[in-house]
Structures are given as C-alpha cells and as structure tokens.
Amino acid sequence: MTGYILRRVLQAIPVFLGTTFLIYFMVFAMPGDPILALFPGRSPDPAVVAQLRAQYHLDQPFIVQYFIYLGGILQGNFGLTFSGEAINDVLARTFPVTARLAGLALTFLAISGILVGLVSGLRKGKLFDATSLAVSLLLISLPIFVIAFVAQFVFGIQLGWARTTVGSGAPTADLILPAVVLASASFAQIMRLTRASVIETAGLDFVRTAYSKGLSRGRVIPVHILRNSLIPVVTYLGTDFGTLLVGATITEGIFNVPGVGNTLFQAIKRGEGPTVVSFVTVMVLLYLVVNLLVDLLYGLLDPRIRYVK
Amino acid sequence: MSSNSPTGPSAGPGADGRSATHFVASLDETPLVETDTVQVSERPSNLWIDAWRDLRVRPMFWISAALIVLVIIVALMPWLFTQTPPNNDCHLSNSNAGPAAGHPLGFTKQGCDIYSRIINGTSTSVSVGFIVIVLTTLLGVVFGAFAGFYGGWVDSILSRLGDIFFSIPYILAAVVIMSVLSQYRSVWSISLAIGVFAWPQTARVLRSEILRVKNADYVMASSALGLSRFKILLKHVLPNSIAPVIVITTISLAAAIVAEASLSFLGVGLGSDIMSWGNDINNAQNDLRTNPQTLILPSIALSLTVFAFISLGEVARDALDPKARALR
Amino acid sequence: MSEPHPTERRAGTRTMDQPLLEIRNLEVGFQTQNGFVPALNGIDLTLMPGQTVAIVGESGSGKSTTAHAIINLLPGSGRITKGEILFEGRNLASLGDREMEDVRGKLVGFVPQDPMSNLNPVWSIGFQVEEAIRANGIASGKDVKKYAIQVLKEAGLADADTRMHQFPHQFSGGMRQRVLIGMGLAARPKLLIADEPTSALDVTVQRVILDHLATLTRDLGTAVLFITHDLGLAAERAEQLVVMYKGRIVESGPSREILENPLHPYTQRLVAAAPSLASRRIVSSGQKLSEADYHPPTSARGMDLIKAAESRAAKNEIERADDSAIVVESLSKVYKIRGEKGEGRHFKAVDDVSFTVQRGTTMALVGESGSGKSTVAKLLLRLEDATQGKIMIDGADIAHLGGRELLSLRRKMQPVFQDPYGSLDPLRNIGNTIAEPLVVHRVGDRASRRKRVSELLDQVALPANLSTRYPNELSGGQRQRVAVARALALKPEIVILDEAVSALDVLVQAQILSLLAELQSELGLTYLFITHDLAVVRVIADQVCVMKRGRIVESSTVDEVFDNPKEEYTQGLLAAIPGANFEFGR
Prior knowledge:
The complex is a heterotrimer. In chain A, helix 8 (172-202) packs antiparallel against helix 10 and helix 9 (205-212) crosses helix 10 (217-255). Chain A has helices spanning 2-28, 34-37, 46-56, 62-74, 87-122, 127-141, 144-158, 172-202, 205-212, 217-255, 260-270, 273-301, 303-306. Chain A is mainly α. Chain B has helices at 47-55, 59-76, 114-150, 152-166, 170-180, 187-214, 217-225, 229-241, 243-266, 277-284, 293-320, 322-326, and one strand at 23-24. In chain B, helix 2 crosses helix 3 (114-150) and helix 10 packs across helix 11 (293-320). Chain B is globular and about 100 Å long. The longest helix of chain C is centred in the middle third of the chain and has 18 residues, at 203-220. Classes of the chains: A mainly alpha, B mainly alpha, C alpha/beta.
C-alpha cells in the first residue's frame, strides 16, 4: 500500500504544477494588461493596481512570475481580496459553512443515490426501476440553478417549508434545502452508476458461487454485490467533486449561504477578477486533494490495486 | 423416449447400485444437425445496422429527435415563430404583465416579450453547443486516438496533459477565462472557453476504447498483411472505437449548453446585447417571488433543449453499447 | 457441530440403493428478446450415493443449465417449467428460497468452471471460506478459522494458515481452484456438482487437481456430478456417462461401453472427433492403425481425426525431402517489465530457441500458458523484433527486411489467430475482410478480387453469398474459416496457426483440422501450429517442439515424442491428456 500511495502522490505533482501553471497562464498570458482586464468596465484605483502589480510581480518575466506565484501557493498565501482582506482569512471564515453544506449534500447523495441505485439494479425492469430512471433523466436535464429556483419557489415561497435564503450564522436547518439541491444535481449520475454497477456485479460468477455456498440474499447483496459495486461509484465521486464545486458556487449564491462558493459567486458577479482567480485556484487545489484521497480510498476498496504485482 | 428412458425400469440401478444400462435416445426425438451449418439472418447485420433497428422502435428516440429538429429550426429561422423583436420593442408599461394578444407568455420586468426572447435566444444556446463539440471532438479524438493507439511515451505525455486539463473543472476554467476576456464576450469566445477544458472527457473515452480494440486479433492480422500503423488506426481501430465518442459528444453538447447558461447566469457569459436564456434567467432571478414566469419560462426552454440532447445520447448509448443494452 | 471432523465420513441415513438424485423429465427455458427459448427438453438422470456421473456435451447442449437447475441458480431469466429434481426424495424444484439456501452448500456443493472469476476479488481467501462455513453452521466462534484452515489444507493448500489473509489475485489459477474445491466440500455435501472444474487451467495442473478431487470425494463418500466438454476426460473420471445434445440426453450408460460402442450417431461423432481419444487410441494400438482395423462411423465423415492423421502421415513420408521453409536459430526475446517494487526488470519470453520446419509439413509448437510460444509467432511474423538470433524464411534472414521485401515476406507467410470473436473486424463484411490482403498488396482489380473471394470461400467450404454478411452472424467455427480464407488470399507458402482451433467445440475443431489437412495437401502449405493441446498435435503435426518458460525442452517427430518422450516435462504433458487410465479394448 505504501508503494501505491507514494506512486499516486508522485503522479499528482506534475498535475499540480500543470494546473497552477495553466491558471496563471490563462490570466497573465492573455493579450492586453491583465490587471485592467480583470476589472471589466471600470478603472480601478491606481493604488490597487500598483498593489496588484507588486503582488503578481508583473515587472518580472512571465516564467519568473509563475514561480513566485507558485511559491506563494506552496506557503499557503493566496493573496488579498478586492477589499484588502487576506484570502486565507476569508477561507477560515467561510470554509466551515461550506464544509457543513457539502457534508450534508454528500450524505444525502450517498444515501439516496446508492440506495435507489441498488434497489433499481436489483429490480431491473420493474416499476421502481423505470420510475427512478425517468426521474434521473429529468434531473440530469435540469441545470442546478434551475433546480435551485424551483426548490426556492416550491418549498420556500409556495409551501413555506424552508427559508429561501440562509439566515445569519448559517444554521444547519437552513442548509438542508440547499444541500438537497446540491445533492440532486449529482444524484442521477450516482444512482445510474450504482444501478449499472449492481446489475453487472450481480451477473458475475462469484455471486453465483456465493449463493452456491449456501449464503442468503441478505448476506450476498451487501457483502458481495454492493461492496464490489461501490468501487466505480467511489471513483466517480472524485470526478464528480468538480460538479459539486461548481454546484456549490451557484447554490450558495442563490441561497446566500455564507460559504466559500458564495464568496466566489459574489466576486464573479461584481467582476473582481483577482479574487475570482484566487478562489478558483483554491478550488482546483481542493479538487486535486480530493481526487488524491479518492484514489487512495480506491486502493483501500480494491485489493488488486493495493497489492500490485 | 418413454420405453427406454434412463430412469425407466431397465435403466434403474443394478444390484450394487452402481451400474445402469446403456441407454440411447431414439433418433426421431433427437435429430442430428449437420455440424456448424451456416444460418444467416434475412438481412445483413452489424453494429450500425443493429443500432438503427434498435433505435427506430424506441419512442424516446423519436421524441428527442423531434425536439432536436424543432430546436434547430427555431435556432436557424426564429422569424418563422415570432415577428416581435426581443430587445427593441420593450415598454416599461408592460413590465411583468401577463399574456396578451400576440404575446402568449407575457412580459419581463423591462416589458420585453418573453416568448420572443425565448425564441431568439435559441440560436445562442445551439451555436455554443455545436461549436464546443466540434472543438472537443477534434481535440479529444486527436489526443485520445494517438495516446491510445501509439502508447508508450506518446501516451504518457498526452495523457498527463489531458489529466492537467481535466483537473480544472471546465466551468471554473471558463469563469477565469471569461473574467479575463471581459472585453471579448461573444458566442465564439465563450465556446472556446468551455471547449478548451472540456475535451479530456472525449479523449479519455476514446483512449480506453482504442486500448480495448487495438489488441484484437484482426488488428494483428492486418499488421501481418503489411498495412501501415496509421492506416490500421484509420481503417480498423477508429471505426471500431468511435461509437462511445458519438454518445459522449451528444451528451457534451447538452453539457455545453448548460455551461453557457451557467456562465451567463453568473454574469461572465455573454454580453447583455446577446440574447441568451442564461442572461434572461440571471436578470429575472430577483423576481422569483413577484413574477416567477420570467424565470421559469426560459428555464423550461433551456431544460427541454438539454433534455432532448441528453435523451438522444442515452438512447444512442443503449443502441450502440452492448453493455448498456444489457442494463435495459 | 462443536468439534468439526472434516475427514469424517457422512453416515448415510438412507440405504445405499436409493438414488441420491433423481431428475425426472426436467424442462428449463430462458426468456429472451425473441420470446421463450427452451434450453432443456425433458432430462432424466439418476445418481446413486457416492457415484460419479459425467455429463458430456458441447457448448449450448444444456449441460451447465442442468447443473444450475439442480441448485436453482439459473442465470437471469431462466426457470424450470416442468419436471422434478428429487434429492433424497425431496423435490428441489418446488423449494422456497430459504429451504434452497439450506440445500446449497450443506447438501449439494458446487465447484464452478473458471477459478479466475469465481472468487470475489475484494475479500480475502480466508473470509470467503469462513463465510461458507458459518453459513452452513459447521462451526462457530474461533473454530471457524481453524476449520477453514483444515478445509483448505485438505484441498491441497499446504500453507493455508499463512495465506488465509491473502486475496484471490495473489493465488495462481490452480490454487484458486483448490480453494473453490475446498469451499464446495466444506460442509461435507452428499453431492458435489463440478462444472468444468479445470477447463481454464493448464493441462498438467488440471490433472493434479482432478486427481486430488477424486481422492477427496472418494474418501468422503461424496457423489459427484461432473460436467465437461471432453469425452476423454469424462470417461476417465466417471463410471457413468450422460451425453447431451441440444437440451436432450442422447445416450447414457457405463463410460467404457459408450466409448467402445457408441450407439447414437451424435456420440459416434464425438468419439471420432475428440482429439484426446484419437491421440490416445493411436498410442494404445502401438503404431498407426491400418485401414482394416478401424471403421469410422459413417455419420462422422469429414471429422474423423484418425483418418485425417493417417492420410497426412502417408503423404508426408513420400514427399519428405530436405527443403526447409523456416529456420530459426537461437532466437531470444527479452521484454522490459515492471517488477514488484516498480523497478525495471528483464523478462526472457523466448530463450535461445532453434528449430527448422520442412516445406509442406506441420511443426507444432506446444507449451502451457506463458511458455513463450505465441511470442515466437509474433517474431516470425515480424510483428515484433527479436532481441537476438536469426529467423530465415526461404533462406532469407527476415530481420533487416524493409519496404517491398518485407511486403513480399508478408505475402509468403500469413497467420490465423485464436479468438474467433476477435479475428475478424466486426464492421467489415466477409467479402471485404477476405479481400483486404489483395487490396493491401494491390492484387488484381475489383472484379478479379470478387472472383478470388468466392474461390476462397469455396475452399473453406462456406457459401459464396456470405461475402455480404458481417462476422456477428457467423459461429465461432465459421469465423475461423473466414480467417483461414483471408490468410490464404495471397497464396502464401507458410501459415502460422496460433491456437487457431483452441476456442472451438470438438466437432467444429475436428472439422477445421480436417479442412487444414486438406488445404495442406492441396496447396502444399507449411504450417507452424501453435497450441497448448498436445492431443491435437498428434493428429495434425509431423514435428513437435515442446516449450517451457521460453525454452524448447524437447524436439522431435510426433511419433517419437508420443511413444518415447525423453523429458519429464513432456511425459507430464502426455500423461495429462485425458483418457490415460482408459484402455481401449480392441
């Protein structure tokens, strides 16, 4: 296992360098003055411009700029927001809220997606299966902001079950509706993947062999079918974390959740370029870390990966 | 069979319980067929022919195809559906008004005709969708095909490069690009911003498919004939691995439409001078309580279009992928 | 049972002359897209306690369906539509799920076919054995582990206690099959169903495991229902044979009687076509059988391997002259692979191999999986380059050929590969597939190519109208015929057959082997025949090279190798051909 961990971590390094370089390249290799381009439709305070020029070392050659920026990232320094607050301080304030929202959403997602997928897969072609497939097709077709507005409209305005915007301090009760919205965007994919995986696994030889040993359905389904079916689902969760990040940005914005996503959402809306770049960088790094963790989890779930020949 | 069945009296166990008599079924009941006779179906069949036979009896295929045709006609010829200009005929006196004669869906806050805005926004979504898939398919097929087929260091380099692009969620990347390109917001720039980061998906799908196909015996047989590597890729490997690319492309088209709407919704998409469902949803988001149809109607148009392309991709997957067919 | 005694014999409460298993008029069918398809059409079968009965049949004959029906584990949409399965007088076909769970494992054990796919890859071996023990209530608490080790040791895993925590992929195929046998017998069932238990394994491993299984079941007094496609294997392992064909039993009775005097034409065909029996019979009669001694059943025309072998041998004795088509001299191929810790390592797939193939004859390259035999084929075909050594085709070294010379070499030498489902491009019709060599080598125009395609189809005994059809409409045997036709399109001198008949059912295999023999005498072809199946070699080849771990360990004429094997390894391979314990009475 240690060899596997080491290899995965080593493989992540070029990807880390590549992604940070790419983000930097996108911002500072574009035509024109990057600082001015980051403030669309207005002329920023010369002091701010000077401060940004210094922060991004724009007087240096491009590649040197990148390495200075990279050094900053490695020291955990992501710069300042438009209003001069350290990004790190903003993160420290907003991250716990986002973590709570994401935790709730992931819990809903895992329980509903995997459970519905499992039952659907075991009852392939039955009414439950047909219904959940139809619902999931509908959900895939709805962009997350549409889901969010419909949820706000139906549960917030029409039924009055939940608040359309999150109250101060983001009480967990207020986060339930945004979390359901966030989960529903990925529900369809997780449910379908689980279903496909369950159907495939249930047809494999070792499942028949497990039954032939005298095991009951109550044993075979969780231990042999579900356990094996989870491997591709967990792997997919890593990829899907990107969707979750974008989804969180939009959902937090719409429900006004005081989290990381909302900060990015507001920065985009207000056209605060440097803040946008900083937060996107943070999110991409988070995405890399989560995917690394998922890979390690994959190694835990699948012994064939753990013990390579 | 009844007279000399193995369980009949004559075939019963002997004294030691071990021996049974020699039983033969009558030839009438077990007629012998010539070994390995050729039995072909009435019409030729291969993957594509079978897929078409499968598709044409599925209602979902016809529903999604009809919707797509409709969307494309609306996009190309909006004037067939409405004469009302979407931007220039807005009267604040009509603000948030309900349906009226000639204005079946009512008005926005600015007093513009919602129906006209939806009809005229179609071409934006469809254009972005198609430009993005042309871009992702070009990049994805080239990267995926070379990485998968040539393997070795070519694969290592191309796949790592794909990993890097894949590691930045494409909407976030597009947010950054569009923030920087604030002066150049057009259908082309937004398509570029989405497409440049969305291709690794296509490349990965094609690569893994090519890895499956390239070791087939028929590929080796063609090498043994002296067919060049590149010709083998073009003539045997690509045709046999392109089906999943078609599926992923159809679904990417829908994803690109969602991406454009999301970016416009976030305010970093298209300029306010360009008709876009995403822009309209963005402009209406504060009116949810007072005038929900200004938000809901463009959302429905957007969702129906996305639904059409996704369902087409799904039925195509069912028809083209034997594994997906088994899931049905 | 608090103190498990794995070697204790199960004391039967019923008398020994009551049948243990009695299947009456069993009908099973599957629901498919094209409606309900019957798979078993009235099966009757009786099995006495402690007895071993073998069901023999080709793929699709219903032999595995019968096995799965007994323990009610029919795949997918399969269900029993009629008949009874009486186990000690109780009808298993009418039991509910719960009752059936008590039957499986405890009363009826099951050993599946493919050891690679029948163990769950994510659980350790110990876990999977222990859950079987617990489910059948054989032991509880700490005894479970003790008993599991005992069961595995019994099945032949001497180091069971240290390897319990390992995962299936860390075991070899043979070891996994031992685990499966151990699990199948863990609860001391009265009946063990063994569904092709060793067909996925190398021949030498097969034999050891079957011997072990036989000893175990004899000691435990377990009855065995043995399912196999190999008539020789069935006859060797069971007292009673049941021959199945298209969902029916066509013949059953004592093994010896059926082999010596097959009555049903289908059984006659099988007896004539089984390579294991054919090669064994040639051996048992000392030398080649004369025409007068042997009367093939008329129904087996065109598929009689012995006749085919003899006519080949006779022809080659006349023609044999020193004219070598292929000369291989100290050929080596080294691959760089990644070792256990990711470090670069060298792996010698082919190690100092030399042989010569005379024109118009067949050289067989025999070896188990991983012996390097297929790598030799790739080197000969210049699909890969040799690390060392020389390959001469028609006297010319092929190593440095390029451009046009390489093309003309390819024209001279064509391959047929193993997998009947991968040997043809699924998107090309048969006509285009066969014509591809002509197009690549720019032979003839459109019309003449079409004519040549019909000619070739005729040569491999396929109808000409097949040329507009696609591979998915053909059976495995027919696809291999098309692959042969494509290989012959350029009128090559040498054909390299890499396991070309290994994936086919025996009757189809016999047909293709006869076809190959005919084509050889008609066109004067030279064959390099690569196979893991020594039994087939006897009927097709003139010379044999036995390969082991990249090296040739023995090389001689077929008769010499079969009658007088020098190497222990070759002797082992020969002994592993099923039917070794079976003496033909003639």
